[in-house]
Specification:
It is an enzyme of class 1 (oxidoreductase). Its EC number is 1.1.1.37. Keywords: NAD, Oxidoreductase, Tricarboxylic acid cycle. It catalyses: (S)-malate + NAD(+) = oxaloacetate + NADH + H(+). By secondary structure, the chain is of the alpha/beta class. The protein folds into 2 domains: 150 residues, 3-Layer(aba) Sandwich (Rossmann fold); 161 residues, Lactate dehydrogenase/glycoside hydrolase, family 4, C-terminal (L-2-Hydroxyisocaproate Dehydrogenase, Chain A, domain 2, Alpha-Beta Complex), CATH 3.90.110. Helix content is 40%, strand content 20%. It contains 10 helices and 14 strands. The strands form 3 sheets. The protein has a 9-stranded mixed sheet with strand order 3-2-1-4-5-6-12-13-14, with helices on both faces. A 3-stranded antiparallel sheet has the order 7-10-11, with no helix packed on it. Strands 8-9 form a two-stranded antiparallel ribbon. The radius of gyration is 19 Å and the shape is globular. The chain starts with 5 loop residues before the first strand and ends in a 5-residue tail after the last helix. Bound molecules: nicotinamide-adenine-dinucleotide and (2S)-2-hydroxybutanedioic acid. The site of nicotinamide-adenine-dinucleotide has 28 residues, from helix 1.
Length: 325
Amino acid sequence: MTQNPVKIAVTGAAGNIAYSLLWRIAAGDVYGPDTPLELSLLEIPAAVGAADGVAMELSDSAFPLLRNITVTDKADVAFDGANAAFLVGAKPRGKGEERADLLKNNGGIFGPQGRAINDNAADDIRVVVVGNPANTNALIAQQSAPDVPADRFSALMRLDHNRALSQLAEKLGVLTTDFENVVVWGNHSANQFPDLTFATVKGEPVMEKIDRDWYVHEYIPRVARRGAEIIEVRGKSSAASAASAAVDHMHDWIRGTGKWVSVALPSDGSYGIDEGLVAGFPVTARDGSWEIVRGLELNDFQREVIAKNVEELKSERHAVSGLFN
Ligand code: NAD
Ligand code: LMR
């Protein structure tokens, strides 16, 4: 273990998600057990004191890989030399709200953070946006960072992906690892499309094992509305599962995966998704880059549901166009 530490920035460090996320990162679950790391915690001024307390607890955990912790309310400081950034800090929705209702409050956070990343982060910076509405917030950050390659910005669809796997595993009485080629397309919203068309279970087509009516009328809405269901039952939005998904996302991006996972990326126009929109695609990862799975033939149902997501993302983009550089 001779290499220099990597620097990982986490925003919203005093919040619920960070309270799970930081412990997983510090344990080495993102870069692996041989990579020492520094944590850089960004909070708003009113919550810097609480973030200091989080940093004290991290220190008390005596993680072998953790070399330094910085707490700050200055984005330029937080992202200085950062190799990875988890943009979590944003208001969560409450009961009865949709994630897009948060745009007005949260959208303004991501332009300045994108600019600070642009001006200060390391050349290999990779960003995952978790704060909702994650796809459009990622678009705002990406548009504000013209010197950073667009494909270094992503938004979290992995929680939706993990929900899609676990709901299906429960239905079929198998393990989540028995599936291949599951994907959640589109927006991290109630319109998202958990798509089983290409999915296999132990090598056999999933669509031959399930009833289409259950798939369309129960499974898809159940996965797509799981965030609202958690808020209803738990009284607060998902936190530990979101942190776990964010770790899965960044781990696979950096360390690679040959298995399909769902990631929201700036579209290159594939599958009829307008170029630039940050949308969920089926991807694999190699040599530190996501690769969209190419050459899939989409049927009418898939095209229709993906088109609904594109319309929603376009209308969110329209609503925030004033926040771009
Ligand atoms: P929380 O309210 O517990 O914590 C948010 C923290 O962000 C607070 O400590 C707040 O002070 C901080 N913050 C606000 N503005 C900031 C800024 N400009 N810079 C730095 N920090 C800032 O919320 P939470 O439960 O941790 O959720 C955070 C966000 O993640 C919410 O928007 C929530 O909806 C979203 N979320 C997304 C997913 C997903 O799958 N994409 C899953 C769960 C939650
Ligand atoms: C989730 O999917 O759990 C998060 O996006 C939180 C929410 O508002 O649903």
